[in-house]
Amino acid sequence: MNLKRSFYIMLIMSLFAFLAGCTFETSKQSLSFDNNKNSSYYLSQADNSSGSVKVNWQLLAIRALIKENKLTQANTLLSNLPSDLNAEQKEEKLLSQGEIAVKKRRPFDLNQLTIVDLNNSQLYRYYMIKLGLDINSKDLNAQAHDYLQLEKYVSETEKRQLLNSTWNFFSKLKADKIGKVLVGEDDITLQGWIDLAYAYQQNNDVPAPQDDDTPDTIATKSQNQKQLLKQAINNWAIQYPDHPAKEIISILTGEQTLAVDANGKKVALLLPLSGSSRIFGETIRQGYIDAIKFFPQEPQQNVIVVDTTSAPMDALIQQAQEQHVELIVGPLLKNEVTKIKELAPAIPVLALNKVDKTTTSANKMCFFALSPEDEAKDAADHIYSQNKIKPLVLVPQNDLGRRVAQSFAAQWAQLSANSSQAYVQYFGNAKTLSANMNHNVGISLAGSPISNDEVSSGEMISAGFDAIYIYASYDELTLIKPMLDMGANKNIGNSSAVMLYSSSKSHVANASDDFYYDMNKTEYAEIPMIQKDNVNTKIPSNVQKDYSLMRLYAMGIDAWRLTNRFNQLNSYQLNFLDGMTGKLSTSDQCEVTRSLSWQQYIYSGTNSDSKSE
Question: Which residues pair with 593 in a beta bridge?
């Protein structure tokens, strides 16, 4: 009898242990975060669970909400978590609180977390939080060491992203700031990053163009500089053969290329070919079809052109599937890109616009757009590289203007490690500007500080600006420049202490001599295809006469080339293609970004011209 009872006790204990193990495994699995899942997925899992498993799903939902920048919702969910969390859940909660604090630029006590209790994934998040806190406190030495710590715990999928971020940090440090980084006697990796930054900076500056430089002279100077840079980087690689940065050497020397896919694709090109957006869609279509003339060595494509105004998006996707299309290129309009992302077709997509990052797509979806926000980031890079420390951004008083200002400010804050601030001033439309000018009302050099997430409405600052970036149309800029001179009671730009920079929006074909006179020595951003003295005869004459159309035409060509490399497109690839719209890179979520050409307006009487930078 006792033997029988003992048997039952052992059986029940074994079953209990098995069930407990299952519960533990379920809990453990529930805390495994999948970057491809959004917050809605995790919240639905939490709604269908209970107990400790429910808490795990809630913690994962909080992580997803933070990733989606839904911080208010994440905080609400955090505050509603039960108090009786287990050790792992407490660590997860603290990590999420730290990530929110960094995003909101608030203090956070990292000592609440015990490093020895964290796994590699959590340690990576720990040092990301520390990096964010050190960025907010402008501690360059700590930031340098944070990047090295992150390298120890980074996953393979995030390794390239971290390498690029690390290089972005070191490459932007000026000589006086590099000296603030403390290097241990045996810290070869850190010393390697510093030496690489020195080598790059000392050999990457093209001599400023002189007034008598010809296009051939400028090209020769640029080529000589590239050779010097390549030699300096190769010498560094010999000295540091095992350094992690060796994986990005081809990027630094400009040698990185992305090989074309093995075979041509069957492509559905989705564009608006009727209605109010017809001219945009038709010009991109023309560039896409003509691309083979510019790059005959690349694979041919079987292209089916589809008018997005002809049917709903789900019907167009169904049509593409029935025709065995391998890749969808487009659509162009933002609302259509949002719709196709929601539909998540089985066919991969190269969208020709960018949308909110808060949702993820089940299939591979990349984004390529002529974005003013990307152009503003490129402007921040260019202006910072010229050792400017206090930029003023002039933008129209509308939603696009605010987005441009925020994009510029976010990039500036990253470059300067928050050691200097970007400022903004808004202007009205051309009619308002003209009225003010007629009443002798100038534009003062004053602006409000811009934060990363919102434009401040604080007091206007009116001293110390050494650079002005203007995002305006041609008509607006012709009024803004003399109004700046009027407001300052002196000439702004040209040879003054305050440099002027403008966007491609104001660069037009056949600008007047008066415009060149006013804008003399002003630098402006433009796509490489547009060169005043080198208009390609392959470009249709109607496109040549309108730079806004030429940019769309160039976009069509670059979209065709991206299609030929689509299978190899991944996140975080820098300068992998010298495109017609700029040097192309990919950032997070396979967003293609552009680095533009910078040129100068040069007034020379009746023969006004532009010079490349």
Answer: 585
pLDDT in tens, 575-587: 889 899 999 988 8
Q: What is the 8-class DSSP label of residue 536?
A: -
- List, in sequence order, the alpha helices (H) in 439-531: 474-488, 513-518
Distance CA 496, CA 521 (A): 10
Query: Does residue 331 have a cis peptide bond before it, meaning omega lies within 30 degrees of 0?
Result: yes
Nearest to 162 by CA among 175, 152, 174: 152
SS3 322: helix
pLDDT digits (tens, 9 = 90+) for 176-218: 788 888 998 889 999 999 999 888 888 876 565 555 666 566 6
Q: Are 491 and 479 in contact (CB under 8 A)?
A: no
User: How far from chain centre, in Å, is Cα 436?
Assistant: 36
Tokens 């299309």 belong to which residue? 325
Region of residue 69 (phi > 0: left; psi between -120 and 50: alpha; otherwise: beta): left
Strand 327-329 with 302-307, pairing: unpaired
- CA distance to 358, 455, 591, per residue, from 353 (Å): 15, 24, 10
357 token code pair: 């990052």
Q: Which one-letter DSSP state was computed for residue 261? A: P
Helix locations, 137-270, DSSP H: 140-153, 156-171, 175-178, 188-202, 215-239, 249-252
Q: Model-level pTM greater than 0.85?
A: no
Is residue 481 within 8 A of residue 449, CB to CB? The reply is no
Extract the tokens encoding 121: 């994934």
Strand partners, 455: 450
CB burial of residue 210 (10 Å; 0-12, 13-18, 19+): exposed
Locate 361 and state its tokens.
């797509």
Find the length of the chain: 613
Beta bridge partners, 368, equal: 592
The confidence band for 612, taking pLDDT boundaries of 50, 70 and 90, is low
What is the distance between the alpha carbons of residues 29 and 611, in angstroms, rounded to a whole number?
A: 59
Cα 553 from chain centroid (whole Å): 23
Is residue 42 classed as helix, strand or coil in its secondary structure? helix
